[in-house]
Amino acid sequence: MSQSYESIFENNRKWVESKISQDPTFFEELAKTQHPDYLYIGCSDSRATAEELMGAKPGEVFVHRNIANVVNTLDMSSTAVIQYAVEHLKVKHIIVCGHYNCGGVKAAMTPQDLGLLNPWLRNIRDVYRLHQVELDSIQDEGKRYDRLVELNVQEQCINVIKMACVQERYILEEYPIVHGWVFDLRTGKIIDLDIDFEKVLKDIQKIYNLTESDWVMNRKTN
C-alpha cells in the first residue's frame, strides 16, 4: 500500500520532467489562467476520466464529477460549478456524460436500503419512474440497465437547461450548448445521444422560463 502511494509522487515527477522537456514554459503558462470551452459533468467512477477519454489537455476542460453524473438543483456543488463555468469561464459546451456499467445507476435499480446513498439515488429512481413504461418493456436486464444510463443522462441534461444562468447566456450569445454522452467502457467509445438542445429549451419554456424576457431561438446568420 505504501509503495503504491509513493509511486504517485514518482509518476508526478516524471510527468513534470516530461512536460518541461517538451515545453520549458508549460507550467508558467498553465498557472496564468484557464479558458476551457467545455464543462464536463461526469461520474466519479475511477474508470471514466474526462480528460483521458476526450484526449484533452490541461486547461481545456472544466470538470465536475459525482455518483452517476447527477445534476440536482438542490446540490450546491454541481450548481455552483455550472454557474461559475457559464458566467465566468464562458464555456461554450456543457457535456453530461454517463457510462455503461455505472454502479450508481445499478444501485438505483436495486430494491435495497443503502443508507445515506438513498437521497442521492432517488434522483435516478425518479428517472426510472418517468420512463417506467419504456424501461419495463425491455426484457433483457442488461439492455434495460444500459437504457437507464442513457435516460439518466437525458434527464440530467434537462436539469442543466432548466438553470437560469444557462438560459440567460444562451439568449445573449447562443451558448452554451448542452450535450448528452455515454462512455462505453466495453469499447472505449463515446456515444453522442444527440440531445436536441434547442427543442428541449423550447419544450420547457413555459414552465422553466427564468429570464423574464421573450426567448430568441433563431441562430445568428453569418
What's the gist of this structure?
This protein has eleven helices and five strands; from the N terminus they run H-H-E-H-E-H-E-H-H-H-H-H-E-E-H-H. The protein has helices at 2-22, 26-30, 50-54, 76-87, 103-108, 118-130, 132-136, 141-161, 164-173, 197-203, 205-208; strands at residues 38-43, 61-66, 93-99, 177-184, 189-192. The chain is globular.
Describe the structure.
Keywords: Lyase, Zinc. Pfam families: Pro_CA. This is Carbonic anhydrase. There is one protein chain. With 222 residues, the chain is an alpha/beta fold. 49% of the residues lie in helices and 14% in strands. It is built from eleven helices and five strands; from the N terminus they run H-H-E-H-E-H-E-H-H-H-H-H-E-E-H-H. It has helices at 2-22, 26-30, 50-54, 76-87, 103-108, 118-130, 132-136, 141-161, 164-173, 197-203, 205-208, and strands spanning 38-43, 61-66, 93-99, 177-184, 189-192. A five-stranded mixed sheet has the order 2-1-3-4-5. Strand 1, helix 3 (50-54) and strand 2 form a beta-alpha-beta unit. It is globular and about 55 Å long. It starts with a helix and ends in a 14-residue tail after the last helix. 27% of the residues are buried. The model has no long low-confidence stretch (mean pLDDT 91).
Strand content: 5-15%
Biggest pleated sheet = 5 strands, mixed
Radius of gyration, taken over Cα atoms and rounded to an integer in Å: 19 Å
Give the SSE string.
HHEHEHEHHHHHEEHH
Distance between the termini: 58 Å
Q: Tally the helices: what do you get?
A: 11
Summarize model confidence as the mean pLDDT: 91
Strand order of the largest sheet: 2-1-3-4-5
Pfam families: Pro_CA
Keywords: Lyase, Zinc
Protein name: Carbonic anhydrase
Catalytic activity: hydrogencarbonate + H(+) = CO2 + H2O
